[in-house]
Amino acid sequence: MDNLTNKTWRPLRPGGSKIMKKIKTGKLIGVSLGPGDPGLITRQAWELLSQDHFWTYPVRARKSDSYALSIVLRAGLQLPEKSSALVFPMTHDLEKLAKHWLIAAETVLPILQSGQDVLFLVEGDASTYSTFGHLAKTVVGLDDSIHVETIAGVSSFNAAAARLDTPLAEVDETMAILPAGYGIPTIDKLLDDFDTLVLLKVKPILDDILDLLEQRDLLAHTQFIEKAGTEEERIVKDVASLRGETVNYLSLMLVKNVRRVRGEIKRGCRKKPDEMAEATN
Amino acid sequence: MDNLTNKTWRPLRPGGSKIMKKIKTGKLIGVSLGPGDPGLITRQAWELLSQDHFWTYPVRARKSDSYALSIVLRAGLQLPEKSSALVFPMTHDLEKLAKHWLIAAETVLPILQSGQDVLFLVEGDASTYSTFGHLAKTVVGLDDSIHVETIAGVSSFNAAAARLDTPLAEVDETMAILPAGYGIPTIDKLLDDFDTLVLLKVKPILDDILDLLEQRDLLAHTQFIEKAGTEEERIVKDVASLRGETVNYLSLMLVKNVRRVRGEIKRGCRKKPDEMAEATN
How many CB atoms lie within 10 A of CB B229? Predict the structure, then answer.
């Protein structure tokens, strides 16, 4: 990395000041774009996208389209010349992933070190199931003088709840968000503690989930949504009809556990500090 | 409320069309504004706010300021003449709350019935710990021809994670959001199943939470943030220093459960459908 690091030090030309000036490095900015509807881009993200910054955006493979970029293009903005796709393959192979995080980081680092801010376009929210955290960590690992900034955005489950007109959580309610792949016993157990479950990546165990919801008498309180807020959005209120279907990867299930019983001790915990101390001791 | 109701009904003037036309009712739109930074208002919310709609906004009491409204005013917009504060008192008394939901619904209903769209300004996300769901349900209960629309927004925990540069969830991770008042045994139990806990309303049991985190050796992986993204934002990384302090109501704790062990069966559930069926049967 030494050659890269050296690039950031640009000695003043002969004839200039004799004092070595350090170039201010650029910021790596994770720009959340919301889950797909260009209207859900925040004003702050929009402002950054409208300025003269270097854009980066994730693709699955060198020739793939970028979903994050497509949101911005549908919003009417143009891809600037100063831009680069970063490849993050769809794999759980940590070694392979780390290799690509490093390649991506090495792509953006010299740009940052030259003093330019780099935007990384993120679908949904940059803190929620996003590659941005890995990219940022790897960049800072290479050069800890780089500043990272995250612009928060609308996450897919917030958009899904809005489209379904179903609150994620109301006063005192609890909610959990998890990949459904943790399995039926886990989902079953969590229903005891949560008023709302957001199940992601339901595809591989969809029928098993439907069985559980039927046992729990929660089918009528569960909704399914694919690509929330996009033109291809699909809402299924009769989730039992999904049985046997191969659903899209970008789908989720919103389970409202209307029958949840909150125990006495738990209620006690929401009282005054003194009573709570007793209840929890 | 009767005088308000009467104002909105504008009968067709004599001499007008003899056919009674049913006025198309307006839409009740929950406009999420994000947690406080005007930059986190979405473009769609901004567009609605810039159009000629009737604004409503929540206040705790008749003479109180509205935090939701303050976000919009700080963004540079002006309160239109066509606007009304709606009182939602800070109480857990369900009867009292229901009474105020009804008063609020009766305030907006005639406006909707006159054909005007009504915006309800919401801090954070309208689906997440917001009064909007109650208002919408009560309005539709009074007149089921009213259409409700929710504009999703950035929730406080997404903004908090961004400000803390800490991911809420990465690949395969699980996250839970809950009022801390459910008590230490609940929080302790949930740590086994969650990589991230967002604890809301930590104020009343803050010291007990710190004890638990110390036992679990998670103090170094916990951060505290008050009024994320606002001018009064306060970030505390050394959460142990909060012991004995009375913290703000609008604060949360982000606990990264870095030591969580994910069991074998759970991992099995993330494999191919056939293997999963075996693992969960």
Answer: 22
Indicate the class that CATH gives domain A157-264: alpha beta
Q: For B168, which of A46, A127, A162 is closest by C-beta distance?
A: A127
* A270-276 contacts, C-beta under 8 A, 24 or more apart: A270/A172, A270/B179, A270/B181, A270/B182, A270/B204, A272/B204, A273/B204, A273/B205, A276/B181, A276/B183, A276/B204, A276/B205, A276/B208
Cα separation, A120 vs A111, in Å, equals: 13
The whole-angstrom separation of Cα A216 and Cα A196 is 14
Residue (of B244, B248, B239) closest to B221 by Cα position: B239
CB contact under 8 A, B127 and A161: yes
A154/B contact by beta carbon, under 8 A: yes
Angle between helices A43-50 and B43-50 (to 10 degrees): 110
Cβ–Cβ < 8 Å for A119, A27: no
State whether B165 and A182 contact (CB < 8 Å): no
Q: Is the pLDDT of residue B2 over 90?
A: no
Q: What is the complex's ipTM, to 2 decimals?
A: 0.86
Amino acid at A44: Q
Q: How far is A163 from chain B (nearest CA, A)?
A: 7
> pLDDT tens for residues A45-57?
999 999 999 999 9
CATH class entry, domain B157-261: alpha beta
H helices present in chain A, as ranges = 2-7, 43-50, 67-74, 94-113, 132-142, 156-163, 184-190, 206-215, 264-268, 273-280
Q: B2-154 adopts what CATH topology?
A: Cobalt-precorrin-4 Transmethylase; domain 1 (3.40.1010)
Which are the contacts of A230, defined by CB distance < 8 A and separation ≥ 6? A35, A36, A37
Q: Which residues of B touch A128 (CB under 8 A)?
A: 158, 161, 167-169
| Contact between residue A229 and residue A35 where contact means Cβ atoms under 8 Å apart | yes
Could you tell me if A154 and B154 are in contact, meaning their C-beta atoms sit under 8 angstroms apart? yes
Q: What number of residues does chain A have?
A: 281
Backbone angles phi, psi at B30, to 5 degrees: -85, 115
End-to-end CA distance of chain B: 58
Is A157-264 the same fold as A2-154?
Answer: no
Strands A118-122 and A27-32: parallel
pLDDT the model gives residue A213? 97
pLDDT averaged over chain A?
A: 87
Predicted confidence band of residue A280 (pLDDT cuts 50, 70, 90): very low
**Count of residues in chain B:** 281
Three-class SS of residue A30?
strand
Tell me the domain boundaries of chain A: 2-154, 157-264
pTM, whole model, 2 decimals?
A: 0.86
Write the CA distances from A43 to A63, A66, B49, integer angstroms.
30, 22, 13
- Looking at residue A63, its amino acid is K
Mutation for testing the A interface, residue in B96, B157, B269, B281 having most A CBs under 10 Å: B269
**Residue A108, both tokens:** 């953006």
Phi, psi of B163 (to 5 degrees): -65, -30
